[in-house]
Every structure is written in structure tokens, then in C-alpha cells.
Amino acid sequence: MCAPVVSAFALEMLNSIPSLSARARCLCRNQADAQDLVQETLARALSHVDQFELGTNLRAWLHQILFNQFISRRRRSIRERAGLARLALEFRFEHGDRSATPSQRISPRLETALEELPPKIGEVIRKVDIEELSYREVAEQMSIPIGTVMRRLFRGRRRLAEAVADEMLPIPAQAA
């Protein structure tokens, strides 16, 4: 693209940010996640600018990227939760002890993966997923915004799911 076309493209992209933000807020129902989604959308659009056809509707193209990013995030989140649920089921089948303390209720494999997380992310994972505290309770205990709790939880779950994904076994039939 030549300089005037690039500058027009950039200007139109900047003008699309408010409408992208509004749609992202409707999809995510969370300001922090919506901002992340818009940022991911713009980064993806810039990295794939060669796929944009000049003369077509840039705003529609950006909105399609935003929606595709949203769907990808949702699918990833579902896979991460399924991985964590599978680990919990695996542990229950191996140990069956429901009277154990929260730190004793996770498998050694998950404990190792938790230890490898950055401390702030690991702490949020432990408080929400193991101690079963609400996002608000964790935010108050750690003196951080709820959005930060959600971002750390999202990133931590994703890292845990990736860390144990290659070792996952199918869920036993009796658990389903």
C-alpha cells in the first residue's frame, strides 16, 4: 500500500474503535475483557492488513475480526475449563478423599504446574479454583480490581491447561 492509502486505512481504523468497543462490551459484558478484545482485534487486523481488499468496507472487516476473536476466546476458555475439570475428576478417582484440605485436593501434576505459574497468577488460581472464593473476595484480599482477578485467572487457567494438555487422559465413563 502506498502512503496515502496507509494513512486513510489507519484513520478509518481509528474511527472504528468506538463501534468496536461498543460491540466488544456487548459480547464480553465486561469492560476489561472488551478492551482486551478490541486490542487483539486491532493487532490482528494490522498483522493481516494484506488480506484486506481495498475498496471494501473496513469497518465490517474489523467487526468480523472482532467477532472471530471473541469466538476463539470462548472456545479456548471452554477447553481450559474442561481441562481443569478433567484434572479434578482424575484426582477424585485417584484419591477419593473429600475431607482433605484444599491444598491436598489437587493432583501432584497440577501442583507442579501451579508452582510454575507467576506467583500473582498462581495465588489467584488457588483462591478462586481451589479455595472457591468469589472474584470479589479475592480482589478485596489481594487489594486489586476484579478485572485484574479475572485476567489473572484467565491467563493462569490457560497456562495450566496448556501445561497438562499433552498428559490428559479421557474421563472415565462412570464420571460422565
Task: Please describe the topology of this protein.
Blueprint: H1 3-28, H2 31-47, H3 58-95, H4 108-116, H5 119-130, H6 135-142, H7 146-165
Question: Would you give an account of this structure?
Answer:
This protein is mainly alpha-helical. It folds into two domains: 72 residues, RNA polymerase sigma factor, region 2, helix turn helix motif (Rna Polymerase Sigma Factor, Chain: A); 101 residues, Arc Repressor Mutant, subunit A. It is built from seven helices and no strands. The longest helix is centred in the middle third of the chain and has 38 residues. The C terminus is likely disordered.
Question: What is the second-level CATH architecture of the largest domain?
Answer: Orthogonal Bundle
Rg calculated over all Cα atoms: 21 Å
Number of strands: 0
Instruction: Give the helix tally.
Output: 7
- Structure class: mainly alpha
Give the SSE order as H and E letters: HHHHHHH
Residue stretches low in confidence (pLDDT < 50, at least 5 long) are 99-104, 169-176
State which percent range the strand residues make up. under 5%
| Amino- and carboxy-terminal Cα gap | 54 Å
Largest sheet: none
**CATH class division of the largest domain:** Mainly Alpha
Helix content: over 70%
- Identify the overall geometry: elongated
CATH superfamily of the largest domain: Winged helix-like DNA-binding domain superfamily/Winged helix DNA-binding domain
The averaged pLDDT comes out at: 81
CATH topology of the largest domain: Arc Repressor Mutant, subunit A
How many discrete structural domains? 2
